[in-house]
Design a protein that fits this description.
disordered N terminus; 33% strand; OB fold (Dihydrolipoamide Acetyltransferase, E2P); Helix Hairpins; alpha+beta
Length: 360
């Protein structure tokens, strides 16, 4: 003989009846936290994709030709300001200094001879043994010799300066982002060697069309930077709009500075910037905003549990709009009037709603 399966409703009613006959009390329902919602005016907002970059970044380039003898740092290494990062063979620069010194000695010898000829010519002119034109020629030779000496000394200074470029130092304290050369390779003036940046000062850079900037109003801009890779959202320290548009893309560049000391933010990484303008005073009611925790998602169903005024909850299907910065609130496009009380724990509210339906 098959056992008879009682309906759930009958079993539940039987438990309640048994508890009443035996004088037992059922556990009290768990308290469900609720929140009162209303339509409110939101400040205009624009979301734009951005790229993280360092505020202080320097790409070191060679200023003299020569073979790379030593690299004092590699990509990812932390460096100090003034630390020697690259050493270039100064043999060619030393040869240039020696040649410049030889040129000075030659120019000085020519100057001594030109000075003696000029003095001799002046003496002969005074005794009427030489014409004035000959004296002018001797003076010209003397002045040219002086100019040659000055030029030779300038060449030596230039060669000595180039020789000082054999050691490339870091202009700032920070991290080495990239290495562009290997030891033993030939460095030429202008060739990139290393890229160094300061990780304590970072910013997000976005390009916006002027029309989208106009949507934010004329007041001061605020922004928050979303980092999808780490799931963080950081409030910006400052927002700067560059006073020129790109002639090719017709967009305006906006720099969004992050607070000093933000860690684990890499230059070149992707970011999403949420720009906020100023809400207009006395404006009409805006969209309905609810806590994201109140939203129940089951497959294609998006709903909330609203209080029914009798101690229970009813399921209300809704259509969501954009998520607000921080991810804690979301807009509701339809399904709510804006004067409801919602359950912040939709799972527990659903359990109580089903329990109430069974009890009835």
């Amino acid at each position: 003989m098959k056992p008879i399966m009682l309906p759930v409703l009958a079993r539940t009613s039987g438990l309640v009846l048994a508890a009443a006959l035996l004088g037992l009390s059922l556990p009290a329902r768990a308290e469900v936290r609720t929140v009162r919602i209303e339509a409110r005016v939101l400040a205009p907002a624009v979301v734009a994709e951005a790229t993280i970059e360092a505020v202080r970044q320097s790409t070191l380039a060679a200023q003299m030709p020569g073979r790379v003898l030593e690299l004092g740092a590699d990509a990812g290494d932390r460096v100090r300001a003034g630390q020697v990062l690259v050493r270039i063979d100064p043999a060619e620069a030393r040869a240039a200094v020696a040649a410049a010194e030889a040129g000075i000695a030659q120019a000085q010898t020519a100057l001594v001879n030109a000075r003696a000829e000029y003095q001799r010519a002046r003496s002969l002119v005074e005794r009427k043994f030489l014409s004035q034109s000959a004296l002018d020629g001797a003076r010209t030779q003397f002045e040219a010799a002086e100019a040659q000496v000055r030029a030779a000394r300038a060449q030596r200074e230039q060669a000595a300066t180039v020789q000082g470029y054999a050691s490339v130092t870091s202009p700032l304290a920070g991290l080495v982002a990239a290495r562009h050369i290997e030891p033993g390779e030939m460095a030429q003036p202008g060739r990139n060697l290393l890229t160094v940046y300061d990780p304590a000062q970072m910013r997000a850079v976005a390009d916006l069309a002027p029309q989208r900037l106009a949507e934010l109003g004329a007041g001061p801009l605020r922004a928050s930077v979303e980092l999808p890779a780490s799931g963080r959202t950081i409030e910006a320290a400052a927002v700067s709009v560059l006073p020129a548009a790109d002639a090719r893309t017709h967009t305006v560049r906006v720099r969004v500075d992050l607070p000093a000391g933000v860690e684990d933010v890499l230059p070149g990484s992707f970011a999403r910037v949420h720009f906020h303008g100023m809400a207009a005073a006395g404006g009409a009611a805006g969209p309905i905003v609810i806590p994201a925790a109140a939203v129940l998602r089951r497959g294609e169903l998006t709903a909330v549990y609203a209080a029914d005024g009798q101690g229970g909850f009813t399921l209300r299907q809704i259509r969501l709009g954009r998520a607000l910065p921080g991810g804690e609130s979301v807009e509701v496009l339809s399904g709510l009037r804006g004067d409801e009380t919602l359950a912040l724990d939709p799972v527990q509210a659903g359990i109580q709603a089903r329990a109430g339906a069974v009890a009835r």
